[in-house]
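hey so i finally got around to running the thing on that chain from the lab meeting. sorry it took forever, my laptop kept dying and i had to restart like 3 times. anyway pasting the input first so we r on the same page abt which one it is
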Amino acid sequence: MAATVDTKPTRRSAGRRLADLLHGHRRAQVGLLLAGPLGWLVIAYLGSLAVLFVAAFWQLDDFSGQIVHSYSLANFETLWEGQVYREIVLRTVGVAAAVTVTDAILAFPIAFYMAKVATPRARAALTVAVLMPLWASYLVKVYAWRTILNEDGILNWALGPFGLKGPGYGIVATWLVFSYLWLPYMVLPIYAGLERIPNSLLDASGDLGGKPGTTFRRVVLPMAFPAVAAGSIFTFSLTLGDYITPQLVSSKQFIGNVVYANVGVANNLPLAAAFATVPVVVMVVYLLVARRLGAFEQL
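ok and heres what got predicted. didnt touch it at all, straight out
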């Protein structure tokens, strides 16, 4: 009869030797623990960005339709000289800024009530209410708004008796839908920032004769502004890169629509990659400004 070899002691001894080797070496332990996630980040995320930037310098052969791996700045020159591309960038950035400001105005009173006024039970209910839209499918929400904004939709039906009419499909519709979609991403950071403000500061301002408006301007807003900047990172970046909502509720082109069209229908990957670098550059500048405003400490 063949003898069986028990490998468990060997495995235990190997594990023990590894544990003994790492004992007292905290940096090696942390490095080994983070090796997998960081490796995935470098390969999947940073690697894809590197490929994107490299592809932006390639060319498309007009005759064969094949991608030529020769490097030049022709794609960026096309974007810079084309007025239509500049208009699309300005439109996208403008809508992203409008959505960010709108969500900040809407989110601040909600977050303030949650943090400073509501009872624990009401706070929990409001938190669920804020998070609930995130549980629904993105497409379901956009199509629901498409139905609302339709010519025969519920919005025109409700405004009809007053002689009013909804905005229909277009830039205003895009702004409304984006503001609805990203509002929770603004409420939660502001709520977290307001919750960190001690109530004693608000009481002290009132004891010193500060009116509610003065307390808000001089105490609450300066201390909560980094949280607003943190929330704006989400609303601005999500709007900047989205292409589904503009395609469904507007006929206007945004950066994402042009990138998608060039990757698919036009089969011009180099131009799509070059145009995709524009929101990356915009977000890098935006993040640098947000960092100066203390937004990263609120994330």
